[in-house]
């Protein structure tokens, strides 16, 4: 475990604000297991659980755990088949997670559709949030199966994308190569009356070496030829939009966050969204600040604590906020790939990887819950007794 020093003071109230262990435990389950382990050592310990997410998959679940109402709606999946997707609603604020409709999780096992997967269902989810009376929509993007620049989403909200003969272009990023005209004049007028926040942990532009196809396309099954085709199609998409929507279309394509989730960030910016780091938005929405104020010790974490963690992932955001409030932070994780000095600079007092308790990685993944409870017992011994 990183940093052998233990706390001189004993915490009275613990806040568990961890993300999911992808493939093993949801954020809610992480909080439950950590709480169980802590209370095995300190039975009457006050523990507040606040599962967190950074805008990617698991964001709606984190909002529901924080008291939002779960709403379900039938929408189009990335291949056009109907799926049941959820969003969260409380006091006029909706949390919409694009992965619920258009995520890799919605594809059959082993199936990818890099050129044809569409974000149409994500637009239907946004429309459902509008129908539910949302005045603020936090649009969490990540984990997408799509690289269509948000064209499908915009179509579901009233935009029209037509080929040379006046026919709708095929769904997916590949179909945008055939785009001749783009018409945004019939977008749902309610979009101008709400606050739309684009919540993402990536700041890539739409196209180019750091754009959506080049950086994230291979994760979605795109071959090198597919990546080149998608990059050209999205550049063409932005060019056609510039002709109909003006110079802002080009500005948005180069803006941070435009390349998020296969370019759906670009579509959201065209709708007037304001881009913010996903974890910052979610901590605000979930009520992290008052929970932090009540806590003496904060426990955060995620499946893999690595270099990516430091670039906008949930544990880094929790640690930064806790450090600013002069609160002690420790982390749990399945795998640790950061040196102690880096962890210290990021605000982590100590990190407890499951592999310290069980060196067999396969067993850590398969039995993450019980092992995490044992790790939490060690945290209790180090910080609470």
Question: Overview of this structure, please?
Answer:
There is one protein chain. By secondary structure, the chain is of the alpha/beta class. The chain has two domains: 13-50 and 287-383, 3-Layer(aba) Sandwich (Rossmann fold); 59-279, Alpha-Beta Complex (Glycerate kinase, domain 2), CATH 3.90.1510.10. Helices cover 38% and strands 19% of the residues. The chain is built from 16 helices and 13 strands. The strands form three sheets. Strands 3-4-5-6-9-10 form a six-stranded mixed sheet, with helices on both faces. α1 packs across α16 (368-383). The relative contact order is 0.17. The mean pLDDT is 95. This is Glycerate kinase. Keywords: Kinase, Transferase. One of its GO terms (molecular function) is glycerate kinase activity.
Briefly say what this structure is:
With 385 residues, the protein is an alpha/beta fold. It has helices spanning 27-41, 59-65, 98-102, 120-131, 151-156, 212-216, 224-245, 248-253, 260-270, 278-286, 288-294, 314-324, 340-345, 354-357, 361-366, 368-383; strands at residues 13-16, 46-49, 69-76, 82-90, 93-97, 136-140, 160-162, 181-183, 195-200, 274-277, 297-305, 328-336, 350-353. The strands form 3 sheets. Strands 3-4-5-6-9-10 form a 6-stranded mixed sheet, sandwiched between helices.
